[in-house]
Amino acid sequence: MNADQVVNKILSDANDKAEKIKAQARQKEDAEQKRFDSQLEEYKKETEQMASKKANDEKEHRMAAGRMDAAKEFLAEKRKMLDEAFYKSKDALAKMPDEEYLKLVGKWIAAAAESGDEEVIVDKNENRIDESFLKQVSRQLGEGKKQELKLADERLDLGGGGFILSTGKVRTNVSLNVLISQIRDEAEAELAGMLFGNDSSK
What we know:
The protein is built from 4 helices and 4 strands. The longest helix has 92 residues, at 3-94. Helix 3 (131-138) links the parallel strand 1 (119-123) and strand 2 (150-156). By secondary structure, the chain is an alpha+beta fold. The chain starts with a helix and ends in a 6-residue tail after the last helix. The chain has helices at 3-94, 98-112, 131-138, 176-196; strands at residues 119-123, 150-156, 162-167, 170-175. A 4-stranded mixed sheet has the order 2-1-3-4. The protein has 2 domains: 1-95; 97-185, 2-Layer Sandwich (hypothetical protein PF0899 fold).
């Protein structure tokens, strides 16, 4: 083999080797491109899922906020109606005919009296509850109770009606203000429960 043939052989072998290297490189590049495309597609799917979830979460959040706002507005309106209803109830109790009012208050006193010798504190403008009335109520007290209810000299602003039973330092407030307030609190709690459920997070 002469010099030219040797050179040609070397060049041919080198060229074959270069082609093999190129082919391997192309295969590796194709494999990397496929892996990259696959990762890119997966990333797109994850991004779309995240975007969709975020959109759904935002939608749910806004819907929940909207429901809460509507419930609060409804509750505020109901409270306004309760205010008016209880104001009218309080006014109606205060303006009851004397006989009906005293019959009702007599039942309250009899139920609230524990010993039977309490002092009865009335509203500063009260003119229907007197010693004679309290003697009648005293006779209606159950067994084991004294029949010595007394009208106290002290008078207080009780909101137009009702009374306070006093025994020493112990006082039982059965004024119209307190009675109406208790009924209202119960009504508002029941209303809030109906609107928001037992779970406050709803």
